[in-house]
Amino acid sequence: MSRAPSALTIAIARSAFVALLLGLWIIGSSIYGSAVLPSPLEVVATMFQGFHEGWLIRATLVTLSEVLPAFAIAAIAGAGLGVALGLAHFWGDVLEPMILGVYSIPKITLYPIFLVLFKLGIASKVAFGFFHGVFPIEILTQGATSTISPTYLKVARTLNLTPWQTAAHVVIPAIVPAMAVGLRLAFSLTFIGVILAEMSASRAGLGFLLNAADSTFDSRRTLAVIVVLAIIGIGTNLVFYALERRVSPARPEARQATLAM
To answer: Model pTM?
Structure first.
């Protein structure tokens, strides 16, 4: 049985990968020229300019003000619906194919409907981000809840636990690993949904900046916005990944065994 790599080894490998990407970026910039592919230093200079002049800070705050409520609503609604359908096996079997079917639809094609319902503004972007993020946490939570050992639920009924006590002491501890994965995926998809909405019909936000810079062939500003998006996305994923590692078994095989209890 092979030993798991140490944290130091993983950190070194990640640093080497980042260094490789930066090296390829620098080589590409020297080949195609800064007009097509600005160098990392030029992009960083544009970012500092954007933060100094305020346009990049304002756009970032607008996007975060849309992503955070959309993610919070998606997390609460998705987890609640997932637990409910996971415990109610009949309704879970009835609705699961429909939920998976809606989840498979390319969601950007539905954005005009959100514009009609919520008009042009923050509400439509929050709703569209929620629509992206609610599915993974609902699906994973429902799957984990439906596979809880019936013995645990029988013991809860034997002890005359109330539904709230059963949820707090039996259901939630059993589904926390799956919920942690679902939250990480939900934030990523919520973030993507809000950015797509800003690119499609918006007057502010990082998606709007990205679309405006791309339409004027401003490569430096385009890459500066992309780097900010990457920092937000990667940073948040690292936080959720750390949370997932704390509440889940360390090995993937053990994690799958936990979810299949």
So the answer is: 0.80
